[in-house]
Task: structure prediction
Amino acid sequence: MRLLIFIFFFITSCSNDMNIESFSKNTPAFKLEEYFNGKTEAWGMFHDRFGNLKRTFKVDIDGEISNNLLTLDERFLYDDGEKDQRIWSIKILGDNKYSGQAADVIGEATGVAKGNALNWKYKLNLKVKDSTIKVDFDDWMFLQDRNILINRAEVKKWGVNIGVVTITFLKIE
Result:
């Protein structure tokens, strides 16, 4: 019994979930709708859970706001020549909260921003070669000086980390 209690406390104490509130005083302040309104370029990579680089990519993003809706047209070019597109429809809910949908997103993505950070969570049908797997994304975006935005996303399947996506965004206009 003591062993089970020890294991339970060990597992629960290992949780390293960041808290969005801890970034509330950080600057520059990040507003998703302001940053992505217009053109943005990004460069990213995917590492598997063992740290092996599996893929790199470039993304061209066009953002447009209409009423309280931000539409992001993301066009991906992968290092192997594959191209892909994701179009996000993101509702600006007020109080730095957001919800969003895209064709490969299962249900609704939810996000909240504080200070220079935004945490964005969603389930995604991820294309892997000739199949699709359902994964969980936990995105953390951090706005830096000079309009640089750094994104780190943990990708999980059944609660197990299968990899990390790292993206650097640069606001063009």
In short: The radius of gyration is 17 Å.
